[in-house]
Amino acid sequence: MIILTLNCRSQTIHYHLFDYPNPIPLTSGYVEGIGTHTTNDVLDGAPLLLENHHDAINYILETLCHPDYGVLESLEQLRGVGHRVVHGGENYHHSVKIDVEVLHNIRKVERMAPKYNIPSRQAIIAAMELLPDIDHVAIFDTAFHHTMPPKAYMYPLPYEWYEKHRVRRYGFHGSSHLYLAHRAAAHLGKPLDQCNLITIHLDLGISLCAIRQGHSVDTSTGMTPVEGTAQERRCGNIDPGIPGFIMDWEELSPQQIEEVLNEKSGLLGLTGGDCTTRQEVLIKAADNEPRARLAADLEAYRLRKFIGEYLCVLGQCDAIVFSSGQGTIEADVRQRVLHGLECFNIFLDEEKNIQERCIHSEIKISQPQSAVALYVIPSDEARVFCEDTAKIVLNKFTPARPDYTFDDL
């Protein structure tokens, strides 16, 4: 069964095409520069202007069916499209088939994640117009975290803000944390509902999740993806008085300060524009460039603090799981993060940690005497998108405890 998955931002779309249940994509790729500039066609190099997400998705579909380079004979082979949607608010606790009501609810909460929900909704509308005869499924980042208790998701703010505007913690990167949890349980040889885990999603966005008996009970991101630990461009937790102070002195509008906290802070903000990606920061930190070193040390310090918090939340922890989004340089990140946790009887095997297969392979990097297992597991969110979509298309999806083909080693 052929399933297409789409992961959209304002100017980019990443796509994967699966022949479910085969876990290896038939093909994958991305388009970028949507609505901003003319790019080159990836197939023949000709100038290409994608004015909006409708154009971009139409281009993807044409590429998939290209007579020379495509992998499909016809779009009629498609059975479903899975759309990553970052924010589902309180309405959605699992993936769902998209209809008018779902689109309306996605729009209602898009103010909480405008850089994601707005382009996702535009892409969904475009895909449903171009592929009207198949099922479209929304897979929500926030869904995995709906099991958090009120003491974890409520903020100590006026309660009417929650009643009127649903101001609370929601959490993000849910599909990644779900995948890491299922794979860690497989390595531990235990059912997921018997596992206590700390999962760490490391990529452009960074978040941690405390998982008790297979369920998310706390997570670092909040009402928006900007909360939590320091990320590539997002500031994470700061004194709430800082935005108002800077808005006053720099005469910035709420929209301008929000742009700074989301796009001009984090590791890139600390380096003062000398770096353009998190990977570049980590590479320069390895070369002891002062600003980059500060940024990398701060990232590790804050990650380590969250691990300490979540060890206290869980009480007993079976494993700490790192995703791997930036290649070999993340061996240094893991070493910095785990340094000093020996007091919890957590011991890193430094030789295993630096093996190159940590980039693409799942590997245990803890020493035998470590009380908590340490794993590197490259995340595969697209596979979660595919499996949820396929199960919903087949009417075999069980929201209470979905099963996945990646549950076993």
- Strand % is 15-25%
Strand order across the largest sheet: 3-2-1-6-8-7
Low-confidence stretches: none
How many E-type strands? 14
Q: Assign the CATH architecture of the largest domain.
A: 2-Layer Sandwich
Rg, nearest Å: 21 Å
Sheet with most strands: 6 strands, mixed
Order of helices and strands: EEEEEHEEHHEHHHEEEHHHHHEHHEEH
Please give the share of residues in helix. 25-40%
Mean pLDDT: 93
Treating each run of at least 4 consecutive H or I residues as one helix, how many helices?
A: 14
What does this structure look like?
- The protein is α/β, with parallel strands linked by helices.
- It has 2 domains: 2-140 and 382-407, Nucleotidyltransferase, domain 5, CATH 3.30.420.40; 191-378, ATPase, nucleotide binding domain (Nucleotidyltransferase, domain 5), CATH 3.30.420.40.
- Helices cover 36% and strands 17% of the residues.
- It has helices spanning 53-64, 100-108, 114-130, 150-153, 159-165, 174-188, 241-250, 254-263, 266-270, 278-286, 290-314, 330-338, 350-353, 381-393; strands at residues 2-8, 13-19, 27-31, 38-40, 47-49, 78-85, 96-97, 135-140, 196-202, 206-212, 215-219, 319-322, 363-364, 373-376.
- A hairpin with a 6-residue loop joins strand 4 (38-40) and strand 5 (47-49).
- The longest helix is centred in the last third of the chain and has 25 residues, at 290-314.
- The radius of gyration is 21 Å and the shape is globular.
